[in-house]
Write a structure and sequence with these properties.
The complex is a heterodimer of chains A (about 450) and B (about 180). Chain A has about 450 residues and is mainly alpha-helical. Chain A has 17 helices and 4 strands. Chain B has 4 helices and 10 strands. In chain B, a hairpin with a 7-residue loop joins β5 and β6. Chain B is elongated, with a radius of gyration of 31 Å. Classes of the chains: A mainly alpha (about 450), B alpha+beta (about 180).
Chain lengths: ~450, ~180
């Protein structure tokens, strides 16, 4: 779809620059005239929303770094100073903290959009893998950012996550010590996490450039999953999708502002308002909401190494998804059977998140003690997360490959324009228009 | 007939048309977006101004009995040196004598100290040229000499020679008791 450039330099300066650095041509071709399928729905606006999220996090993060002190003795107080004394510091910090949650909300919707419409399939595998890399980098960045306020959750979250690497046989303990830079999570750990937390967003920005580049080679997928066949199937990105993205961004910012101005602490743990104390762990330690499903998978395995492997596998499986899916049809709009399994998958992810937020031994249905199997009480969060984790992996490793071979998809339209033109409503509208003219 | 149809359905993308409702929406949306960005820009600029705690620590108290006659003590105030000089009668006399000399920044010595306290000269120790700290008793007038570009100040801290345009500044201060001052 990245066809011929239609850019024509209009002024003498543009012609001069175009011969030397065709940067205006590139902007013109990628932002203004880029041919985009004309049937994209609002699920396609999250790319733009995510770019905005990254921009917001970088701008507010650079500001916070002007006032933050990465030292165990000063970190907590410097964050309090940002909240109390720095002009509008409260606003900048709440935008940054809420921004992390909004960023993950948007990325999860973006990923699910891809799963539903089969956007990861050929020829967009590299595009998908780059997206998975961005997601991994986001998780690393978010985790290290959560360490910086140096509250109780920051400290003990860091202890738990860095100890995960200790599960690796032979080299694990050395890796943990290497991450810490000492005998425990301490000043060297805080300093290096601050350094990396500042670095990684720019790495993300770099991979985003590759992600968009990889998008612009095959072009956008679309809700039908059918390839663009002719110019009739596309519209220029501007003004059609700049306006559509702009509207979606406005709605998204309303939700963003709702949290920033009315419930800024709703997504933060109160325990993190207590300065870090290496001698006492909070009674109930949970990660941020966007890590809860993976946390539930980690806890569902009664073996240290096994839990760590399963947790990382839950992300790793995404990377190979393009080769697990055997179906020739991209969009689940024409795959009614797997669509059902997909919606169960979404539900299962929410269930895993729910389990991750509760104690493993907590009862799912309070008061019921009859669901037992030998010594096991099946009415517990840990058993619910085991079942859910099993479905999570089965969806990718069994259901996706098998469904592609066994299901009978619905007839797929010839082109993007075809279902619109052959729609009964559009036919009668044309007829009505014709009769009016007559 | 076909002409009429074309005119009632103008191409909204056609260039050179009169402003229509779509143009209006574009203008309103752009202005709203620019207004929002502009409104957000202020907190992001203002955060670099001195914070509440920085402003709260902006005044200090100083005990003058620490300074011996003929000497100067430099203390840090708002991140800059503050000169507290206990002048000898000879230095005061030299400063008063030059009150009507050809000064670049004319000021009497009396206006540069508190009434009845001519011996104590309180100055911000920052050269008015480019901000270096002048050296005590340097220069031809026994006041200060700036090591950076050779500005010479007299015993009242007034600029006498060199590139600096103004006298050494006198901060806002007040005597809390006979030997104690509050600066800022």
């Amino acid at each position: 779809m990245s066809g011929h450039s239609t850019y024509e330099p209009k002024t003498g300066f543009e012609r001069w620059l175009d011969m030397r650095l065709p940067v205006i041509r590139m902007a013109y071709d990628t932002v203004l005239t880029f041919p985009t399928p004309k049937n994209l729905n609002y699920w396609w606006t999250f790319g733009g929303i995510l770019s905005l999220c990254l921009g917001i996090q970088i701008v507010t993060g650079i500001i916070l770094a002007m006032h933050y002190v990465p030292h165990v003795d000063y970190a907590f107080n410097s964050v309090e100073r940002i909240m109390r004394d720095v002009n509008y510091g409260w606003l900048v910090r709440y935008i940054h903290a809420t921004g992390a949650s909004m960023f993950f909300l948007a990325v999860y919707i973006h990923i699910c959009r891809n799963l539903y419409y089969g956007s990861y399939k050929a020829p967009r595998e590299v595009l998908w893998i780059l997206g998975c890399v961005i997601y991994l980098l986001m998780m690393a960045t978010a985790f290290m950012g959560y360490v910086l306020p140096w509250g109780q959750m920051s400290f003990h979250g860091t202890v738990v996550i860095t100890n995960l690497f200790g599960a690796i046989p032979v080299i694990g303990p050395s890796i943990t010590t290497w991450l810490w830079g000492g005998f425990a999570v301490d000043d060297p750990t805080l300093n290096r996490f601050f350094s990396l937390h500042y670095l990684l967003p720019f790495v993300i920005a770099g991979v985003v450039v590759l992600h968009i580049w990889a998008l612009h080679v095959p072009g956008n997928n679309n809700p039908t999953g059918v390839n663009v066949k002719s110019k009739e199937d596309t519209v220029p990105f501007h003004p059609y999708y700049t306006v559509k993205d702009g509207f979606a961004i406005s709605v998204f910012l309303i939700l963003f502002g709702f949290f920033v101005f009315w419930f800024p602490t709703a997504l933060l743990s109160p325990d993190n308002s207590i300065p870090a104390n290496p001698l006492v762990t909070p009674a109930h330690i949970v990660p941020e909401w966007y890590f809860l499903p993976f946390y539930a998978i980690l806890r569902s395995i009664p073996n240290k190494l096994g839990g760590v492997i399963m947790m990382f596998s839950a992300i790793a499986v995404l990377f190979v998804l393009p080769w697990l899916d055997t179906s020739k049809v991209r969009s689940m709009r024409y795959r009614p059977t797997i669509r059902l399994y997909f919606f169960i998958f979404l539900l299962v992810c929410l269930v895993l998140g729910f389990c991750g937020a509760h104690e493993p031994a907590e009862q799912v249905i309070p008061g019921v003690t009859t669901f037992t199997l030998g010594d096991y009480d099946l009415n517990t969060m840990v058993w619910l997360s085991r079942v859910a984790a099993l479905y999570y992996f089965a969806y990718f490793l069994l259901i996706t490959p098998i469904m592609g071979l066994t299901e009978t998809p619905l007839p797929v339209p010839e082109s993007i324009s075809e279902p619109v033109l052959s729609h009964p409503a559009s036919g009668s509208a044309q007829a009505a228009a014709a009769s009016n003219k007559g | 007939m076909s002409d009429t149809v074309v005119r009632t359905n103008p191409d909204p993308q056609a260039p050179g048309e009169d402003p229509n409702r779509r143009d209006f929406i574009h203008i309103v949306a752009s202005v709203a977006a620019l207004g929002a960005v502009g409104g957000l820009a202020w907190p992001f600029i203002d955060q670099m101004n001195p914070a509440g705690d920085t402003l709260a620590l902006a005044s200090i108290e100083f005990d003058l009995s620490k300074v011996v006659e003929g000497q100067q003590v430099a203390v840090k105030w708002r991140g800059k040196p503050l000169f507290v000089r206990y002048r000898t009668p000879a230095e005061i006399a030299a400063a008063v004598k030059d009150d009507h000399a050809d000064l670049r920044d004319p000021q009497t010595d009396e206006s540069r100290h508190k009434p009845g306290k001519p011996q104590y000269l309180i100055l911000i120790g920052v050269c008015t040229h480019l901000g270096c700290v002048p050296n005590f008793k340097g220069g031809d007038y026994g006041g200060w000499l700036c090591p950076c570009h050779g500005s010479v100040y007299d015993t009242s801290g007034r600029i006498r020679k060199g590139p600096a345009p103004k006298n050494l500044a006198v901060p806002d201060y007040a005597f809390l008791s006979d030997t104690k001052i509050k600066v800022g």
